[in-house]
Amino acid sequence: MTDSEVITLTNGEFGATLSPLDRGLAYGDGLFETARVRAGQVPLWSFHRQRLIAGARRLGLVLDTDRLERERERLLARLPTVDGTLKLVVTRGVGGKAYQPPKHPQISYCWQLRPGVSPAWQKGRDGVVLHECRHRLGDNPVLAGMKHLNRLEYVLARMEWDDEYPEGLLSDAAGHIIEGTLSNVFIRLEDGWWTPRLDRNGVAGVMRRLIMEVLGPQLDLVVQEGQVTREALIGAREWFVCNSVFGIWPVTGLAPGGETWTVGPQTRQLQSCFEHWLADNRNLKEVP
């Protein structure tokens, strides 16, 4: 898969580009979503759409939801049976005075359809070793949970390793586990499943939501949100990272410390439950 294979749709025009004056480029003034495409369909699209609309509301943006659907369908129609990824970047557009935004923004909608599936996505189903990042996430409750365009913390964290690990583990300044650089974390302790609370930093992933609201309840697994210490993580019976693109990856090791775990039975159950859910919800319109 190369960049030349990517199909783009920017403000309704195939192959067009953003203005260099766009606030998304200048200030990171916007949001984005990255979704898995399976056989030309986006099973988790309704979750992505709801998160995007909620994030836009927090930024004072009103999105044209009908336009979202029309443009998504136009783009997917170019490759109706593709497996790959769909990315949407929404910005406040051009205008305003420096940081002061325009009163009536002309929102930019920038789509990318990238065909192809990474072999790492499937390989990770049997377990991955993560890099434990030295970089620490700062606290920013105003933006916590949102998938906004300000990603410099994650860029700095990802610079810590090359390709020997598929993902990195991020903590906050106090050393509490928060998330992966592109995924959320779930750990199983003696009292059940936990995932870090994301009220001060981090991104609330749509796969995280699916597990907490749909897959977990189907398996009678209750997930609690709270503070997750490194000590708790090291003592976990099993744990995994997840996102909407690669699904669920069991964690079998942590570098450079050398800690190891086995792939747990409940993680396997969740993987299987997710595959069954996908088979039943190839193009889900509404959140169940």
TrEMBL record:
Catalyzed reactions: 4-amino-4-deoxychorismate = 4-aminobenzoate + pyruvate + H(+)
One Pfam assignment: Aminotran_4
Record protein name field: Aminodeoxychorismate lyase
NCBIfam families membership: pabC_Proteo
Class of the enzyme per the UniProt entry, highest EC level: lyase
InterPro entries in the cross-refs: Aminodeoxychorismate_lyase_IV (IPR017824), Aminotrans_IV (IPR001544), Aminotransferase-like (IPR036038), BCAT-like_C (IPR043132), BCAT-like_N (IPR043131), Class-IV_PLP-Dep_Aminotrnsfr (IPR050571)
Keyword field contains Disulfide bond: no
Keyword line: Folate biosynthesis, Lyase, Pyridoxal phosphate
A cellular component term, taken from the record's GO annotations: cytosol
Oligomeric form and interacting partners: Homodimer.
Pathway annotation from the record: Cofactor biosynthesis; tetrahydrofolate biosynthesis; 4-aminobenzoate from chorismate: step 2/2
Cofactor(s) listed: pyridoxal 5'-phosphate
GO molecular function: 4-amino-4-deoxychorismate lyase activity; pyridoxal phosphate binding
Record-linked Gene3D superfamilies: 3.30.470.10, D-amino Acid Aminotransferase, subunit A, domain 2
Similarity section: Belongs to the class-IV pyridoxal-phosphate-dependent aminotransferase family.
EC number of the protein: 4.1.3.38
One of the GO BP terms on file: 4-aminobenzoate biosynthetic process
Source species, domain of life: Bacteria
